[in-house]
Write a structure and sequence with these properties.
Structural class of chain A: alpha+beta
Number of domains of chain B: 2
Number of strands of chain B: 14
Distance between the termini of chain A: 53 Å
CATH superfamily of the largest domain in chain A: Beta-grasp domain
Number of helices of chain A: 5
Oligomer: heterodimer
Strand order of the largest sheet of chain B: 4-5-10-6-7
Strand order of the largest sheet of chain A: 2-1-5-3-4
Shape of chain A: globular
CATH architecture of the largest domain in chain B: 2-Layer Sandwich
CATH architecture of the largest domain in chain A: Roll
Radius of gyration of chain B: 19 Å
């Protein structure tokens, strides 16, 4: 198969890569660009561990071809922290023990940020529906919900952080 | 496999028409990439239609909306005009998959994947939506109802693809609704489903009805006897009972791990009744 040359933007930086026509964006990120934050859980769009933002929409990078990244804007978990300063969501996940093995965590953080960017004060129900495509087999989800709500409160500047 | 990104519909038609072997259109990819990964298909050519002008847009047209074939569920859900005019279409489409899948999935893709259980399809059929098809002979319009030919098969010919779907204009006091049964609350495949579209007169009497069932036959089923049961009524108990009976009678389902023939047949009637009540209330009808 002939390799394709792709020019894209990842976390605000221009990026170029070569990929096979049937190679997924997830494989490109992990194997060609060294961005291993997005994880392969199922590879079929069911688990959300590979979640990234593509042109402002939350997507599973396992269901995107690398070739489709041409001219696109991609945001990954690697762009969440600002240097050494963790994003409030990342800090809240640590503070609330919202992870154990951590494989689902990058996808959940990307997905949660996408929601909070749209709705800074979601109900627990809205949050659970939004994150229904992010499977976690460790936490039982309650701590994840608590962590996201705590981060949301902090990001809103609320005083009473749960 | 070859990947192509045509810049025009004509270029896409040429690519789709000339390539021998297995050719697939890539819209949102939420079915195609899963099928490729599982080895169900090994395409010789994938044609990414998302760079054709207008294909990512929703445009007002003749009192309705033309939805480009690459418009995602997330984008449709953000469009207040479509959600107000055709809430049943919007809710059916948005039931498909997770937030992530909604970020990519398209109505045209759901239609062309041709699963009997496609959640976007019954409401489109109830809405009398019309697909714009680009092909070797130019563009043609085709009712959505005429696209599915059977599980995994469509009536599209070699070289053809859907570029947009038109949701038509509606009069005042009109609305629609879509309901499906799944054994959980989120992200599952319909065991049975029903869309109902209604138009009421100023007294709240139903003047036009369209009823479409999903997952109870090889393709979506338009239930004309169910629509007839509603017209002339105010969605009262006898009309709803007649609708439910007609919907159940129109079922030709299969037994599988998700539901039996008996269950699907029964539930289709219940869903029809409930969807009709929701559509009636949305259209401003009061009982």
């Amino acid at each position: 198969m002939k390799s394709l040359q792709v020019s894209t933007t990842i976390n605000g930086d221009a990026a170029e890569f070569l990929c096979a026509p049937d190679e997924t964006l997830l494989d490109v990120l992990r194997n060609r660009l060294g961005l291993t934050g997005a994880k392969e859980g199922c590879g079929t769009g069911d688990c959300g561990a590979c979640s990234v933002m593509l042109n402002g929409r939350l997507v599973c990078s396992c269901l995107v071809l690398g070739a489709e990244a041409e001219g696109a804007e991609i945001a990954t978990i690697e762009g969440l922290a600002e240097g050494d300063v963790l994003h409030p969501l990342q800090q809240a996940f640590i503070d609330h023990a919202a992870l154990q093995c951590g494989v689902c965590t990058p996808g959940i953080l990307v997905a949660a940020k996408a929601l909070l960017d749209r709705d800074p004060d979601p109900s627990d129900e809205a949050l659970r529906y939004w994150l229904a495509g992010n499977l976690c087999r460790c936490t039982g989800y309650d701590k994840i919900i608590a962590a996201v709500q705590a981060a949301a409160a902090e990001m809103r500047g609320a005083r009473d952080v749960a | 496999m070859r990947y192509a990104r045509p810049a025009t519909a004509a270029e896409a038609v040429t690519l789709l028409g000339q390539q021998a072997g297995i050719v697939r259109v890539l819209g949102g990819g939420t079915d195609l990439l899963v099928q490729m990964r599982s080895g169900m298909i090994e395409p010789d050519l994938v044609v990414d239609i998302k760079h054709i002008p207008g294909i990512n847009e929703i445009r007002a047209e003749a009192g309705g909306f033309r939805v480009g074939a690459a418009v995602s569920g997330a984008a449709l859900g953000d469009h207040a005009g479509v959600c107000a005019l055709w809430p049943g279409v919007a809710e059916g489409f948005q039931l498909i998959g997770s937030t992530q899948v909604q970020g990519r999935a398209t109505m045209a893709g759901n239609l062309c994947n041709a699963s009997p259980a496609g959640d976007a399809v019954p409401a489109l059929v109830a809405a009398e939506a019309v697909a714009r098809i680009e092909g070797p002979e130019g563009a043609r319009d085709c009712p959505v109802a005429a696209i599915p030919a059977g599980p995994g098969r469509t009536t599209l010919k070699k070289g053809e693809f859907i570029s947009s779907i038109l949701l038509p204009a509606r009069p005042e006091r009109a609305s629609d609704a879509y309901l499906r049964f799944i054994p959980r609350t989120e992200m599952d495949i319909a065991v049975a489903s029903c869309a109902v579209s209604l138009v009421l007169d100023s007294a709240g009497t139903i003047t036009v009805a369209r009823v479409a069932l999903g997952a109870v036959a090889p393709t979506v089923v338009l239930v004309e006897a169910g629509a007839s049961a509603l017209v002339g009524s105010k969605a009262g108990v006898p009309a709803l009972a007649a609708l439910a009976a007609a919907a159940s009678a129109a079922c030709a389902p299969i037994d599988d791990k998700r539901g039996t023939i008996e269950f699907r047949t029964e539930v289709a009637g219940v869903l029809a009744r409930r969807a009709a009540e929701t559509a009636y209330a949305r259209a401003g009808g009061r009982k």
